[in-house]
Design brief:
Blueprint: H1 2-103
Length: 106
């Protein structure tokens, strides 16, 4: 009977040892899959963040170009208005001098 009990204990120990090894292997595989999934999530998150940054960068560049164009147009308009004013002033002075010159006795 002791022989049977010893054999049963040995059998139980072997089963427990195998179950522990299987559990450890399953745990290792789970951790590996979890780590891979976490890495993929992290990579995807980084890709999404980079895409958002690029989108914001393009939007800011477009807004800058639009604002630059507006300022350039305003500047051009101001220069043309100043030029027009100076030309009118010049011609007014020339007209005035011609009038004064023609009104003087010869």
């Amino acid at each position: 009977m002791d022989n049977i009990n010893a054999r049963l204990d040995k059998f139980r120990q072997a089963i427990n040892k195998q179950a522990d090894a299987d559990a450890a292997e399953l745990t290792r595989q789970y951790e590996k899959k979890r780590s891979a999934a976490e890495s993929e999530r992290s990579r995807r998150s980084a890709d999404e963040a980079l895409a958002q940054i690029n989108s914001e960068k393009e939007r800011a560049a477009a807004q800058f170009r639009k604002e630059f164009s507006r300022c350039e147009t305003e500047q051009r308009t101001a220069v043309l208005a100043c030029r027009n004013q100076l030309m009118e002033q010049l011609f007014s002075e020339v007209r005035q001098r011609l009038i004064e010159w023609t009104d003087t006795p010869a």
